[in-house]
Write a structure and sequence with these properties.
This protein has 737 residues and is α+β, with helices and mostly antiparallel strands. Among the domains are: 2-89, no CATH class; 179-294, Sandwich (Jelly Rolls), CATH 2.60.120; 303-383, no CATH class; 452-670, no CATH class. 41% of the residues lie in helices and 15% in strands.
Length: 737
């Protein structure tokens, strides 16, 4: 009855207040911040307009709207609107259960690609580090809608596949053979130079000459490559300076000394040529290399090679028999790579690559490399496919799909053997099974991927490398201190996850992790050595995330602190209440407009936000940021800023006052319900790989309530996420029936 009453009250009681105080700015095609309150209806409040009502509520609670220069509603009028929003618009209708939504087919991002290769083959290579940067959506690089495959990425995939295949399987071709450099030379007239080499192992070799020529006259440079007094290759070197080409000679060399010669055959000079660059023909050999012996595997094979060829293939057997034997070796690798059993057609297609390579004379090892390269550019490897249900329907994901969702959520990698085998047995699809697997996986060292990739983006730690504090103002800051900043926060986050502690400690923990370098920066005594260890904190000065230098530095400018950035970071990352983007043409505080800066930072900012267009958002951000002014731009404690004493007190829009970081932290910790929902939303977005919709509010509220009822342990949030319909099911693109 209460919900109905509030619904009926909208047109009679709420809309008239909005019309009186808000419609002037929030209506029509040019509505401020895109909020067109005149078009909003009670029937859409819980669905498509829910996000807008969240923003309206934030502005009302913060006394940021209406702006100070506009007519103000009475306290009774404002409370009536707030009450309707909180008691009706933001109370999701969960009578029909939770909707799962639909995740766009998405590719592996760079971290996932590297981790997948590592765990699939057991090799330590990171080819995706050279890929273009991943796009970010909703704060994360796991979002299917933005993880497209531009043409330039396809080229990188092809190159990476070759790099990985050669790292996995030892080859016998020239590219994998030992390389011996030989000094090159330059010939300015007809003649030759020779080099002597000592061969200690009889076998096949490839001599590679990188050469170019100064071109003059009607003919290109002509070159002969000889070995032991016999010409082995004659070539026209038609390319010019800066573009050497490769000229190869295949050799069979016995043990002992051999003489390699490069001869220039057709010197030319025309003193009448006006262009001096075309007057003299010369031959330049930049480098000479000898690769070999070719066709012999190294004495010590990589472990990945031995695992792959668990049953040797007889090179003398029939090619069809070799192909069938190879398919047996390939099947488990392909199935793991595709995160599901490889089909017969897929195995036949990959084995055909092996067969064709062997038929062309490639060794078994090289043919296997080419096949792995083909596997690594397959859509089934690069993309995470999930079958769509019929239009308008919902389907439960199968065990393999759930295993992949789970492993990429918590490990940014493919399922391990235990999870893959559980999927094969059909033991991953129930909520209880998912929760049990998630608990196991959170205790695994690979859960550090959650620290690096989730926390790194949620807390904006990845931006730490881009921050460059002014060395004149902060001479103690260096690369080691930057690394310590990041390590502290990662250790702190990892501790909460690993020890399954309350996530509310992110707000007010009385401990942190430091080494000697960081302890000295924080003025914490009795910490020696480079190892990080847990220490107790003086909570009058530090505590929780907001006392950590990584956060304080990434939210500062190069020369000074930024209360705006710090306040915005708190609202966005701790309470899911980001302020709107600033209006265009707002002058910079640092004097970019040429205006002389006078007064303290607080005084300058008060002047800066005198513009009503700025004041509404700054009311919310600035007091929070000023509460952290005792920390300088690299997170060190200070009591003075230049000649002035630091003023870290403030008053929030609702009238609550504080003095310094400790009192601000107490106020923020009291907003635990908002923080809990924020963290749930962030983890759910990251884990699902999509932005949250209005219908996800039911899941968010349920998960947050379960967390609050069970000590706010990190594992509870993760377990409730993986048990949710959003994680276990999938909608079609059409309206769900």
């Amino acid at each position: 009855m209460c919900a109905v009453a509030f619904a009926d009250a909208y047109d009679a009681d709420v809309r008239p207040i909005l019309q009186k105080y808000c419609f002037d700015c929030h209506s029509g095609d040019r509505a401020e911040a895109g909020i067109t309150l005149d078009t909003y209806r009670e029937s859409r409040a819980k669905t498509h307009e829910r996000k807008a009502w969240v923003r309206v509520l934030r502005q009302l609670e913060g006394r940021a709207m209406p702006p100070d220069d506009a007519d103000q509603p009475s306290r009774e009028e404002a409370e009536k609107v707030e009450r309707w929003i909180t008691s009706y618009a933001l109370v999701p209708d969960c009578s029909k259960g939770e909707r799962p939504g639909r995740v766009t087919v998405r590719r592996l991002n760079r971290e996932e690609y590297n981790n997948t290769v590592r765990d699939l083959f057991g090799i330590d290579v990171r080819p995706a580090d050279d890929f273009p940067s991943d796009e970010i959506g909703y704060g994360f690089d796991t979002i299917g809608d933005v993880l497209s495959i531009p043409p330039v990425l396809l080229d990188h995939y092809i190159d990476a596949a070759e790099v990985v295949a050669r790292a996995v399987i030892a080859s016998t071709d020239a590219e994998a053979a030992p390389i011996r450099p030989i000094e090159g030379g330059r010939l300015n007239s007809t003649g030759q130079f020779t080099r002597t080499i000592d061969i200690t192992e009889e076998g096949n070799y490839v001599l590679r000459v990188m050469a170019w020529g100064d071109q003059a006259g009607p003919d290109p440079c002509r070159m002969v490559i000889g070995v032991d007094g016999k010409p082995r290759r004659k070539a026209e070197v038609s390319n010019g300076p800066g573009a050497p080409l490769e000229y190869d000679v295949k050799l069979r060399l016995d043990r002992g000394k051999h003489e390699i010669a490069v001869a220039f055959l057709n010197d030319f000079y025309d003193k009448a040529e006006k262009d001096p660059k075309k007057r003299d023909r010369n031959l330049a050999v930049d480098t000479i290399t000898l690769a070999g012996p070719v066709g012999i595997l190294p004495a010590t094979l990589p472990a990945s090679h031995t695992r792959f060829f668990s049953k040797p293939i007889d090179p003398a057997s029939d090619l069809t028999e070799q192909m069938e034997a190879f398919k047996v070796l390939l099947k488990p690798v392909a199935s793991r790579a595709f995160r599901r059993p490889a089909t017969a057609d897929e195995l036949d297609g990959l084995a055909a690559v092996f067969f064709a390579a062997r038929r062309e004379g490639e060794t078994i090892e090289r043919a296997a490399q080419l096949t792995l390269s083909a596997l690594l550019v397959s859509p089934s490897f690069l993309l995470r496919f999930e079958g769509d249900p019929p239009p308008g329907r919902i389907r439960s994901l199968n065990d393999y799909e759930l295993a992949a969702r789970l492993s990429y959520f918590l490990w940014s990698s493919l399922p391990d053997d235990d999870l893959f085998r559980a999927a094969a047995r059909g033991e991953v699809h129930t909520p209880e099974q998912l929760a049990a697997q998630a608990g196991r996986m959170l205790r695994d060292p690979k859960a550090e991927a959650l620290v690096k990739n989730f926390a790194g983006q949620w807390l904006q730690l990845r931006g730490l490398d881009e921050v460059k504090p002014d060395p004149k103002r902060f001479p103690g800051f260096d690369a080691d201190l930057r690394a310590a900043f990041r390590r502290e926060t990662e250790e702190f986050f990892s501790h909460v996850v690993r020890e399954d502690r309350s996530v509310l400690e992110f707000l007010d923990a009385d401990y942190t992790f430091v080494n000697e370098r960081l302890a000295r920066h924080y003025k914490i005594a009795d910490v020696k050595g480079p190892e990080f260890r847990r220490v107790s904190l003086d909570t009058t000065k530090r505590g929780g995330l907001l006392g950590q230098a990584s956060i304080l530095t990434v939210t500062s400018n190069a020369t000074r602190t930024s209360p705006v950035k710090r306040g915005k970071w708190i609202l966005e990352n701790l309470f899911a209440a980001p302020p709107p983007d600033p209006p265009p043409n707002v002058p910079e505080l640092d004097g970019a407009s040429g205006e002389k800066l006078v007064g303290t930072l607080r005084q300058r900012m008060e002047k800066h936000r005198a513009d009503p267009a700025c004041a509404s958002c700054h009311k919310l951000m600035d007091p929070l940021g000023f509460g952290l002014e005792n920390y300088d731009a690299v997170g060190a404690w200070r009591d003075r800023d230049g000649d002035a004493a630091v003023d870290s007190g403030g008053e929030l829009p609702d009238g609550r006052r504080f003095s310094g970081p400790a009192e601000l932290r107490t106020i923020l910790a009291a907003r635990k319900d908002e923080f809990r929902r924020c963290l749930v939303e962030k983890l759910l977005t990251y884990g699902l790989g999509r932005g949250l919709e209005y219908y996800d509010a039911c899941a968010v509220e349920r998960i947050a309530a379960a967390s609050a009822a069970d000590g706010d342990r990190f594992s509870v949030i993760v377990a409730e996420i993986v048990k949710s319909p959003a994680f276990r099911q999938r909608e079609s693109g059409a309206d769900v029936k």
